[in-house]
Specification:
Number of helices: 10
Oligomer: single chain
Shape: flat
Strand content: 25-35%
Structural class: alpha/beta
Largest sheet: 7 strands, mixed
Number of strands: 17
Length: 362
């Protein structure tokens, strides 16, 4: 080996600043708080950019699962929502929560659960038997899971004579699918309360028992007609329409968003940005592409975009050219989620790539 090459190799070993694979930081399932088994996943390592707090996937109830990126800018709001949830449930710090499907933790974020002081655990195996064993052995205050799975598990507990071994005064927090009404009488037999939690991996939890969990949630006219309304969070439509009824939610008659009466909105709304407080239109154009890629929501920028405005202004228009007047949503409160994504985009733009092996030349 030539002397100069040997010297270069020695210098690389001693002083090289770029990390080796072994030196790269790692974000494990345990660090994300979702280190539990599922029957629907494989564990695959990926390179995740520093500007994302973590990666996750939608549940894929109607299609293939879609990758979701959660930015650091979104974490404070997810923490505030988690505080609101456990406050309404009167579940205090130190409470144990049994999570039946690990990715549900990602809808909270690990940080949010840590801040709320919740001690959460996962099943040993992804099965009803494992749920019963874990519930009896660990005596959780809260069980988080899909309602039909919880109903079937409690029915099995009755059949096996395990009712007396099950936890007392437990909260069943149902999420992921529309609430199974048959769970309610079964839960009542155990003295358990049932709560209906609606949200998505993209934007976190949005309603509890038909009541909003965020200030930037709006209900707008749905193409499905009355009594349906589309749920919009921070200016971004969810693609879900719900019946809104004064009769109230079965879990809380004050809540009027009947989240177990859900239908996909068709045609879906597109979002048009017409005004922004940002000084550069380029930031909004990049944000629109980011939202499409990591949140699967269509946002377009008006060719007449007004920059330096007092607040963000968005227009919702039905896709496929359906004839309808645009729905106007103006900030700052009603567009909080969209504005958070703009903040994340701005911060990302200020941070150059640190990998010298990836240099784009103009």
């Amino acid at each position: 080996m030539p002397d100069d090459l040997a010297a270069l190799e020695d210098a690389l070993t001693l002083f090289g600043s770029a990390p080796t694979l072994a030196e790269m930081p790692r974000r494990s399932l345990a660090q994300k708080g979702i280190d539990g088994p599922t029957a629907a996943h494989v564990i695959e390592e990926v390179h995740t950019p520093f500007n994302l707090a973590y990666l996750t996937f939608t549940t894929g109830s109607s299609a293939f699962q879609t990758p979701v990126g959660v930015t650091h800018a979104e974490l404070p709001n997810r923490t505030a929502v988690a505080r609101e949830i456990f406050g309404r449930l009167q579940v205090g710090q130190g409470a144990r929560m049994l999570v039946t499907y690990p990715p549900l933790v990602n809808v909270f974020s690990k940080l949010a659960l840590d801040v709320c002081g919740i001690d959460w655990i996962h099943l040993h195996r992804s099965s009803r038997d494992a749920l019963l064993v874990a519930a009896c052995r660990t005596q959780p205050r809260v069980i988080l899971g899909e309602s039909s799975f919880l109903r079937a598990s409690l029915e099995q507990a009755l059949e096996l004579g395990l009712k007396r071994e099950m936890p007392k005064d437990c909260v069943l927090l149902c999420a992921g699918t529309p609430l199974d009404a048959e769970l309610l009488p079964v839960a009542e037999a155990f003295g358990y309360s049932v709560h209906d939690l609606y949200g998505c991996q993209e934007f976190g939890w949005l309603t509890l028992d038909g009541l909003p969990l965020r200030e930037d949630i709006a209900l707008v006219a749905s193409p499905l007609g009355d009594p349906w309304r589309e749920l919009v969070v921070g200016g971004l439509p969810m693609g879900d329409s719900f019946v809104v009824s004064e009769a109230g939610h079965v879990c809380d008659r004050v809540g009027q968003i009947i989240t177990y009466r859900r239908a996909r909105t068709y045609p879906e709304y597109e979002v048009i940005v017409t005004h922004t407080p940002m000084s550069a239109a380029e930031t909004i154009e990049k944000t629109a592409r980011t939202i499409l890629r990591i949140k699967s929501r269509v946002v377009k920028v008006s060719p007449d975009l007004v920059t330096g405005a007092a607040a963000t202004r968005l227009e919702l228009v039905p896709a496929l050219g359906a004839a309808a007047a645009p729905i106007v949503i103006e900030g700052p409160t009603a567009t909080a989620l969209f504005d958070t994504m703009v903040m994340a985009q701005r911060e990302m733009s200020r941070t150059a790539k640190t990998d010298p092996a990836w240099i784009k030349r103009r």
